[in-house]
């Protein structure tokens, strides 16, 4: 999770994906989606400073770790094993993406309820499209 957010949310990757990835192709769209939890090295004059600029990425990692811990798939699944672990990790990342976006929205440049709902949709969409990576990484993590 930390690697996914650290690499794909980095200023270098987000700049590259914004300039080079073709939004009209499926691959280009996916490369742009990977850049959703973008973090910055400076606030660029954003209200709230650097923490507000990077809050979404920080909350995504913290909430995903917490949800991975709280969703004990192996203990509650009818058929414990790798399939339940995979979907538990994926679901945790979808929820973490949506929650991180909602919780970070009030600190953004244009805080509003509509903006928070739109950000939650983007965050959950990011979690849905990229959560399989976390689901795969969580295999074997719990017994």
From TrEMBL:
<keyword id="KW-0812">Transmembrane</keyword>
<keyword id="KW-1133">Transmembrane helix</keyword>
<keyword id="KW-0472">Membrane</keyword>
<feature type="transmembrane region" description="Helical">
    <location>
        <begin position="55"/>
        <end position="74"/>
    </location>
</feature>
<feature type="transmembrane region" description="Helical">
    <location>
        <begin position="86"/>
        <end position="108"/>
    </location>
</feature>
<feature type="transmembrane region" description="Helical">
    <location>
        <begin position="120"/>
        <end position="140"/>
    </location>
</feature>
<protein>
    <submittedName>
        <fullName>Uncharacterized protein</fullName>
    </submittedName>
</protein>
């Amino acid at each position: 999770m930390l690697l996914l957010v650290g690499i794909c949310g980095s200023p270098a990757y987000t700049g590259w994906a914004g300039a080079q990835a073709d939004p009209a192709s499926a691959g280009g769209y996916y490369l742009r989606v990977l850049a959703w939890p973008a973090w910055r090295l400076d606030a660029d004059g954003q209200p709230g400073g650097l923490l507000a600029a990077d809050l979404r990425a920080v909350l995504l990692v913290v909430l995903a770790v917490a949800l991975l811990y709280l969703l004990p798939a192996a203990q509650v699944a009818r058929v414990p094993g790798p399939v339940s672990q995979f979907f538990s990790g994926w679901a945790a990342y979808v929820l973490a993406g949506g929650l991180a976006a909602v919780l970070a929205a009030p600190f953004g440049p244009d805080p509003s309820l509509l903006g928070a709902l739109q950000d939650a949709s983007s965050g959950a969409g990011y979690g849905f499209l990229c959560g399989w990576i976390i689901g795969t990484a969580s295999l074997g993590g719990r017994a």
